[in-house]
Input
Amino acid sequence: MIELRNLSKRFVTADGPVEALNNVNLTVNDGDIYGIIGMSGAGKSTLVRCINMLERPTEGSVLLDGRDLGALDKKEMQAVRRQVTMIFQSFNLLMQRTCLQNVMFPLKLIHTPKKEAEARAKELLKTVGLPDKANVYPAQLSGGQQQRVAIARALATNPRVLLCDEATSALDPKTTQSILELIRQINRDTGITVIVITHQMSVVQEICNRVAILEHGSVVEEGEVSQVFSRPKAKATRALVFPEMANSEGITSSGYGQRVRLIFEGSVTIDKPLIASMALECGIAPNILGASTRTIGNREYGYMLIEIPGGPDELAKALKYLSQAPNVAVTVEAEYNAREAEV
Output
């Protein structure tokens, strides 16, 4: 288990101090594929470098099975880094060495006998689907193949945790899919814990079981992927999951009604169209301001932003009707409606 407790990181720059991380608290359980997502500048890369102590936190602690990594000496930290390995966006392979030599490199550093290291490296190249590339140099490989070699190298010391820092950002969609499937398969076969740092929503929804949303160095939302993505609470989460939802303040409405969000949580099966049925049965015909859906884990999720005409009575009637629909969460945009009332 990895625990981040009250983790903060400040940098001193020519323009003054910069708060890269602010009081981050997270728990990653053994065997998780845990996503940490945010826009550029959110603090993601700083966070992952704090996890393996490449960056020392200004405040707070990183615990691995209850052991405070910040309290370890250099030798102890080196041992931990063999258990918490990392792959990068730029692959970071040694270009003057063959693929086999690249995978053997971490084993060489810990003085593993050459014959044993070579056998282990060949086994790992087979695991990542490149058994025939042992004597090939990285420059002769595609980007996806280079990342596979980097994954094999990261697995050489039988780590317990694999940190993926924007590991698929430089790859095309098809190659990204194959790398994600490889990571997922390795997680299934070995039980290794994976922490995925990314700005790509598709990466998280493809392989992660839990996710934390990072904004300006702080965690604004955290939980199971299906729950966080189906009912995003924080503005930063809505911007990542449903960009149209996050920008709903800019959606033009009539000004004669109250705005309501419908969040569809999973594969909704409704015998008759919800909005049309409400219009017929309740005599309330809402104005549809916006809508969006996406598939997460083979389940359909989405939202709809509507405007209910009339006053409090019509709103209450509409909410009662909508709330009876299965797998639909209904919320009133109180902040927007209050703002409209003041105008």
